[in-house]
Amino acid sequence: MSLELQQLQKHLQNEVSKLRSNVTLDINLERSRATEAHALNEKQLQVLHNKIDTEVANLRTTYEKYRNDVMKYSADKTLYTITTRNRLSLITA
């Protein structure tokens, strides 16, 4: 009877050991998958961040261009107005 109990105990210990090994393997596999998924998400996030940076730079460039065009137009109109007034004042004087 004692021999049977020892064999049963040994068998149970082996089964528990196998279960622990399987659980450890599953945990490690899941950890590896999570790490890979995180790395992929980080890569995709960086790609999106780069796209946003590019779009912001393009918008700034466009803004600067239009701002400079408005400044040139305003300066031209101001200079034209001053020149026209000076001519008119010379004619009427």
Automatic annotation (TrEMBL):
Subcellular location: Membrane; Mitochondrion
Database matches in Pfam families: CCDC90-like
Keyword terms of this UniProt record: Coiled coil, Membrane, Mitochondrion, Transmembrane, Transmembrane helix
Top-level taxon: Eukaryota
Keyword presence, Coiled coil: yes
Family under the similarity heading: Belongs to the CCDC90 family.
Species annotation: Tegillarca granosa
Name of the protein this chain belongs to: Uncharacterized protein
Residue stretches in coiled coil: 49-76
Major localization class: membrane
InterPro entries membership: CCDC90-like
